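User: Structure please.
Assistant: Input sequence and predicted structure:
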Amino acid sequence: MAVHTPGPVRVAALGAGRIGANHAEIVARRVPGAELRAIADPVPGAAERLADELGVDVVSTDISATLRRDDIDAVVIAAPARSHTDLVVEAAEAGKNIFVEKPMAVTLQDADRAIAAAESAGVVLQVGFNRRFAPGFAAARAAVDQGRIGTPQLLRSLTRDPGPFGGDPDRTPPWTIFLETLIHDFDTLCFLNPGAAPIRVHAMADALIRPDARNSGFLDTAVVTIAFEGGALATAEASFSALYGYDVRGEVFGSAGMITAGSAASTDMVLYAADGMSVDTARRDTDLLRSAYIGEFTSFVDAIRSNTAAVVGGHDARVALSIALAAIRSVETGAPVDLADIDVVGAR
């Protein structure tokens, strides 16, 4: 690993869209030992608007030039998903530590290219699987590690984006539900079943919210089953239109008990009134999982400062991607897919 010199970790945010703005604000204001030094976005005016809000002096529409700056130690890549791998490689070659939003890549060849570049450069590579840092999911993993539920047998993870669905299917890349949404759940299931590699995937998906978009390849509802070494079975599901709000949950049933994590409720407050009981729900992932986002960037900066590997790195991202690619093939063929046929590397 590259050795970090004393002083704050100087960070450049690459991408100033919704998620990029969220990440930049967290780095600038919520992470001890980090300093947001620069913001770059190719869209004219995007970096300037965010920089004005956060008090950042260095802005650019030239991401490559920003990567070459001597006063930058690390980058946060929140550009469009299909550009992630090239930016990871370019950042590694520039000697920068890297946080990249999921997916790190959309092909296994690109995943291997990103991993190899970071390893060759000796830089930290962390991927944005934020659920590992959510308090409930972290506690669930600890309970599994401590043997409190025995041997995991059945697992479940779900993501339901808030509705009504307001996206644009014509501008959404094919297979987004697997590569950019359920990939979180695939990583979560591997995280909650440590030491057991996924071996087989069977997926079903359809356009139930926007049936008119089915022929263009836009799918909005999916269920995926995953078989693990040792016999555990897992289910991941996703929908793009939960009318009640953003919903992220997980469950592990084992030989000695069960654990659950996550909720659609944004707080543990319950309102009791004349019309019944109610709870507040979040409308964005950045609200529901706020502490998890802060936790993942704190962990990233800690890894840089301590000269250690990231808690969730490129190999973890490759495993989750392999499951996503197997799910796509399963939908295409209507049959289960062995991950050996997808060239998966075992989970850590």
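Residues 6 and 305 are 8 Å apart (CA to CA).
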